[in-house]
Inverse folding.
């Protein structure tokens, strides 16, 4: 039996508000506990997005009332709400800027607005970037010019991680995260997975994946799930959507919704990384740094006293088709052989999870 600290997932989408058929605070935090996470950092591309003080406060208050683990929300950068950033910065865990193709309404393309976001956001809190290739290069240049800390989300390519390494060598305050799915899946899996293997950034080549592993624990300081659940009917296309979106009249052709990118990951991330430890691809010490110590430091998160995760590092099993708690009810890792599972979680002295069962609600 291994004892780990309560782990931190620095990149999740809990879909509240506006996407509660995909996930909500109870289901998402239950999945987190089952996966060994006691702290979640939630992204702002909700509906409505968390770009105003009112929306952010309402959503954070709802999380505090409903979630079974700690949830901290990012603020989103928006061209229409730049005036909100100074007040949002007082309580948000960080600022998220979407500089590349993504799911949701928050992509920033106006250079002046992006520049203004960096000017207004305090240097004491990180600015997280969804940025790939050219937009990442521009983001690093902005960080250097404004002397701000940028944290690059879900690095997926060899070129990108090498770009970040060079920036770090030059003394630019840039840190990086990688997802478990970019460490364990490649573009070779896309045909097998179909829409269930579509996410942003997309899966890349084996050479790209090899580079991520080579930089893990050095250039890359954080592993995150990028838990981005979508319902099966959304992943399966228009015909399934019609069955769900009951309207007074049939949906017209132009009402087809594109298949959304994103996969769940809260319940699979730690088992995947424990499997890597069992296969001697990663040390346990590095795993703890990537999933606890580094995100805690980078995002200046509070202590969780009397909190730990008990892991059976010898458990061998097939990852299930239907994870226990995430509402979306599927995983791209279904059928994969894994080694290591969460057996018990204690949060602030209270047993909240044991052997597949959540033992906690906000009422007890």
């Amino acid at each position: 039996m291994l004892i780990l600290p309560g782990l931190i997932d620095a990149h999740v989408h809990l879909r509240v508000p506006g996407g509660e058929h995909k996930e909500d605070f109870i289901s998402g935090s239950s999945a987190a506990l089952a996966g060994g996470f006691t702290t979640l950092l939630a992204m702002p591309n909700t509906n409505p997005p968390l770009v105003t003080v009112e929306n952010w406060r309402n959503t954070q208050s709802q999380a505090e009332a409903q979630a079974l683990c700690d949830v901290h929300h990012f603020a989103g950068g928006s061209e229409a709400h730049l005036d909100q950033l100074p007040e949002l910065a007082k309580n948000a865990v960080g600022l998220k800027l979407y500089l590349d193709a993504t799911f949701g309404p928050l992509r920033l393309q106006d250079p002046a607005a992006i520049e203004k976001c960096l000017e207004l956001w305090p240097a004491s809190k990180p600015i997280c970037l969804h940025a790939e290739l050219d937009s990442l290069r521009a983001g690093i240049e902005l960080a250097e010019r404004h002397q701000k800390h940028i944290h690059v989300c879900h690095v997926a390519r060899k070129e990108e991680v090498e770009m970040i390494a060079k920036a770090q060598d030059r003394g630019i305050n840039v840190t990086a995260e990688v997802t478990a799915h970019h460490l364990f899946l490649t573009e070779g899996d896309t045909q097998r997975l179909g829409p269930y293997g579509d996410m942003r950034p997309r899966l890349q080549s084996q050479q790209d994946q090899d580079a991520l592993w080579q930089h893990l624990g050095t250039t890359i300081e954080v592993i995150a799930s990028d838990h981005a659940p979508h319902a099966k009917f959304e992943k399966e296309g228009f015909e399934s959507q019609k069955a769900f979106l009951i309207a007074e009249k049939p949906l017209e052709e132009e009402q087809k919704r594109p298949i959304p990118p994103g996969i769940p990951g809260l319940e699979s991330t730690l088992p995947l990384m424990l499997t890597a430890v069992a296969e001697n691809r990663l040390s346990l010490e590095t795993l703890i740094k990537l999933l606890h110590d580094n995100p805690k430091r980078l995002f200046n998160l509070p202590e969780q006293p009397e909190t730990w995760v008990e892991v059976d590092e010898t458990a061998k099993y097939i990852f299930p088709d239907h994870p226990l708690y995430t509402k979306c009810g599927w995983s791209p890792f279904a059928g994969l052989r894994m080694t290591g599972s969460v057996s018990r979680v204690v949060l602030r002295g209270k047993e909240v999870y044991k052997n597949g069962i959540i033992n906690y609600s906000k009422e007890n």
